[in-house]
Specification:
32% of the residues lie in helices and 22% in strands. By secondary structure, the chain is α/β, with parallel strands linked by helices. The protein has 2 domains: 102 residues, Urease, subunit C, domain 1 (Roll), CATH 2.30.40; 316 residues, TIM Barrel, CATH 3.20.20.140. Helix 3 runs parallel beside helix 4, helix 7 runs parallel beside helix 8 and helix 8 runs parallel beside helix 11. The radius of gyration is 21 Å and the shape is globular. The two termini are 40 Å apart. Bound molecules: allantoate ion and zinc ion (2 copies).
Length: 450
C-alpha cells in the first residue's frame, strides 16, 4: 500500500492544457491537486517533466492463453508500461480458444491477474458461433463486444455476417455495451484476394491492392447503419483513412453513438514504408499512401478522432517470414510507442496540443468504456500517470515486447517516458519493472439499459 506520495513540480497535462501543479496520492488514488502542496511522506521530483495520465490502450492482442508465444501478458504489459500505459483492453483473439464464452473470459482474466503488470479489461467476441453467449459475456463483465466484418485470419473467430452484427448490436444495446468492429468488407477483400491469388500475385503492392480504402468505407457505412437502427454504441477500431473518419464523424453528427479509433502506425508509416520494411508492417486495413495519411491527420487535427489505440499484435518470426507477402501473418508491434508517435508526429511535428494527446490516449478511451477511475489526473481518480521528458530526443531501441521485429525499432522520437505509475506504485522506472500481481480486472461502469 502506498501512503502519501507527493509528486512535486511537474507539468500536469490537464484537459485545459499543461499546468505546473503538484499531485498527492494516498492508497493509490489522487487525493489533492494544487500549487505548492504541503510535504508528503515520500516525494517524487517531477521538475522539468510532463505528467500524462497513464495511457489507456483500448486495442491490444496479448493472445494468452493459447498463443502466448506470439505475445503474452508478461512481455506485452512490460512494453505497454514502458510506453506510459497503465490500462489496456485485450482483444478476444488471438488467444485460443478465443473469448466467446463466460468460461473463456474467466480463464483469461485469471491469467491476466497473475501475470499482467497493468489493470485491464477484456473484450468478448461477437461471431455467428456465440450469439447465444452474449448475455452471459455481458454479465461476466466484458468491456465490450468485438466483431470482424472480414475474415479475421482465424477460423475459430469467424466474421460477423450482417444478421449476426445486427443482432449482436441489439443485445449489446440492452446491456449498455459498446460493439467494436474491424470494418473491412468481406466481399471486397475476399474477392480481390481470390483474383490476385488466381493471377499468382505475391508482392507487397499486390497485397495492398486487395484492401483499398473503398473496402473500409463500405464496411464503416454498414456498421453505422446498424448502429443507427439498433441504437447500439459502436466503436470503429483502427480506421486507416481520412475518408473513413469523415464518414464516421458525419454519422456521429447525425446522432449515431459512435467512437472513432485510429492507430499510431497509420499516423507514422505509409505504404512506401511497407515496401521498405516488409513483414513488420503488414496489417489490415493496410498502411496507406501519404495522401491518405495526410487526410487522416487532417481529420485527427480537426478533432474527429476519439481514440488512438496501438492494435499491438505480434507473431513469431516463423509466421512473419515468407517470400509471398500474402502468406505473412498480419499485425504490428506497437504497444510501447503510442505516446511516442502522438508526441513526435502529433505534438512536435503538427502542434497537436498536449491535452489532445492525453485525450486520445487516455481520457477518451476511459470514458468510452466506462472506466471511471482511469484516464484523468483529478481528485478521486486512480493515480495512474507517466512522467515524460518532452524534449528528450532518443532512438527507440529498448523494446520490451515479445519479438525483435518491431517497425519502430531505431526510430527517433522526442518525448521519452521515464517512469510509469499505476495506482501510486511505480510499474516502470528507467528500464526496470515491478513484479506482476497487482493488476485489477476492470469492468465497464453500468450504464442505464433502456
Ligand atoms: N488477428 C489479429 O490480430 N488481427 C489484427 N491484425 C491486424 N490489424 O492486421 C486486427 O486487429 O485485425
Ligand atoms: Zn482488426
Ligand atoms: Zn486488432
Amino acid at each position: 500500500m502506498s501512503v502519501d506520495l507527493l509528486l512535486r513540480g511537474g507539468m500536469l497535462v490537464t484537459p485545459g492544457g499543461p499546468r505546473r501543479l503538484d499531485l498527492r496520492v494516498q492508497d493509490g488514488q489522487i487525493v489533492e491537486v494544487g500549487e505548492e502542496l504541503s510535504a508528503g511522506v515520500q516525494e517524487l521530483d517531477a521538475t522539468g517533466l510532463h505528467v500524462f495520465p497513464g495511457v489507456v490502450d483500448a486495442h491490444v492482442h496479448l493472445n494468452e492463453p493459447g498463443r502466448t508465444d506470439w505475445e503474452g501478458f508478461e512481455t506485452g504489459t512490460r512494453a505497454l508500461a514502458a510506453g506510459g500505459a497503465t490500462t489496456f483492453l485485450d482483444m478476444p483473439l488471438n488467444s485460443s480458444p478465443p473469448v466467446l464464452t463466460r468460461q473463456r473470459l474467466e480463464e483469461k482474466a485469471a491469467l491476466g491477474l497473475q501475470k499482467s503488470l497493468l489493470d485491464f479489461g477484456l473484450w468478448g467476441g461477437l461471431t455467428p458461433l456465440n450469439l447465444d453467449q452474449l448475455d452471459e459475456l455481458a454479465q461476466a463483465g466484458v468491456i465490450g463486444l468485438k466483431a470482424f466484418m472480414s475474415h479475421s485470419g482465424l477460423d475459430e473467430f469467424p466474421a460477423a455476417d450482417d444478421l449476426t452484427l445486427y443482432q449482436g448490436m441489439q443485445t449489446a444495446r440492452r446491456h449498455g455495451l459498446v460493439v467494436a468492429t474491424h470494418a473491412e468488407s468481406n466481399e471486397f477483400t475476399r474477392r480481390l484476394t481470390e483474383l490476385a491469388r488466381a493471377e499468382g500475385k505475391t508482392g507487397v503492392r499486390d497485397y495492398l491492392a486487395t484492401r483499398p480504402v473503398i473496402t473500409e468505407l463500405e464496411a464503416v457505412q454498414r456498421a453505422l447503419l446498424f448502429a443507427h437502427e439498433t441504437g447500439a454504441a459502436l466503436h470503429l477500431v483502427h480506421l486507416s483513412s481520412g475518408e473513413a473518419v469523415a464518414l464516421a464523424f458525419e454519422g456521429k453528427q447525425k446522432g449515431i453513438d459512435v467512437s472513432i479509433e485510429t492507430c499510431p502506425h497509420y499516423l507514422h508509416f505509409t505504404d512506401a514504408d511497407v515496401e521498405r520494411l516488409g513483414a513488420a508492417l503488414k496489417c489490415a486495413p493496410p498502411l496507406r499512401s501519404s495522401a491518405v495519411q495526410g487526410d487522416l491527420w487532417r481529420e485527427l487535427l480537426a478533432g474527429h478522432v476519439d481514440v488512438v489505440g496501438s492494435d499491438h499484435s505480434p507473431a513469431p518470426p516463423g509466421l512473419k517470414t515468407s517470400k509471398d507477402f500474402f502468406q505473412l501473418w498480419g499485425g504490428i508491434s506497437g504497444a510501447q510507442s503510442t505516446l511516442n508517435v502522438l508526441l513526435e508526429d502529433g505534438h512536435h511535428a503538427r502542434r497537436l496540443p498536449l491535452e489532445v494527446v492525453a485525450a486520445l490516449s487516455a481520457l477518451n478511451p476511459a470514458q468510452r468504456f466506462g472506466l471511471t477511475q482511469k484516464g484523468r489526473l483529478e481528485v478521486g481518480a486512480d493515480a495512474d500517470f507517466a512522467l515524460v521528458n518532452l524534449h528528450e530526443s532518443f532512438p527507440l531501441t529498448d523494446l520490451y515486447d515479445r519479438w525483435a521485429q518491431n517497425p519502430y525499432r531505431g526510430v527517433t522520437f522526442r518525448g521519452r517516458v521515464q517512469v510509469t505509475y499505476l495506482r501510486g506504485q511505480a510499474v516502470y522506472q528507467h528500464g526496470q519493472f515491478a513484479a506482476p500481481g497487482q493488476a485489477r480486472l476492470l469492468r465497464p461502469a453500468q450504464k442505464e439499459s433502456t
